[in-house]
Write a structure and sequence with these properties.
four-stranded antiparallel sheet; alpha+beta; about 120 residues; elongated
């Protein structure tokens, strides 16, 4: 009955040095976008429940994420011609097993949706 929300923490080191992402106000929405990231960096996250007295629970199990730019298939931290060759190899291939990692709209086909996202990220560089 005294549940206030969650605090979300991030670190670049497993198990320690967590930084609060939501400041001092607990999150009440189960969705959060971590926008201050460096592509290709491995991040570690934990969540803690908070009550109305600001008491925190123990941390959740740690999870990891490595943000990538869509279209950076060679992990060079930029979208380049090698990535375009990679996308071309899967262009219009209708095979969920082979396109799973690059198929944004989950229709099992690499098509204009994926090409548009890649081109947009290419232009942002």
């Amino acid at each position: 009955s005294d549940f206030a929300g969650y605090n979300l923490y991030r670190s670049v080191k497993s198990g320690s040095d967590y930084f609060p992402l939501n400041g001092t106000t607990p999150l009440t929405d189960p969705y959060f976008s971590d926008i201050y990231i460096i592509y290709g960096t491995k991040y570690y996250y934990v969540v803690k429940a908070v009550d109305t007295s600001q008491n925190e629970s123990y941390a959740s199990q740690e999870v990891t994420a490595i943000p990538r730019i869509y279209g950076d298939f060679d992990n060079s931290h930029a979208v380049n011609l090698l990535d375009l060759d990679y996308l071309y190899d899967y262009w219009l291939l209708n095979d969920c097993g082979q396109t799973e990692d690059i198929d944004i709209d989950d229709n099992c086909t690499v098509n204009f949706v994926e090409f548009s996202e890649m081109a947009e990220n290419w232009l942002k560089q």
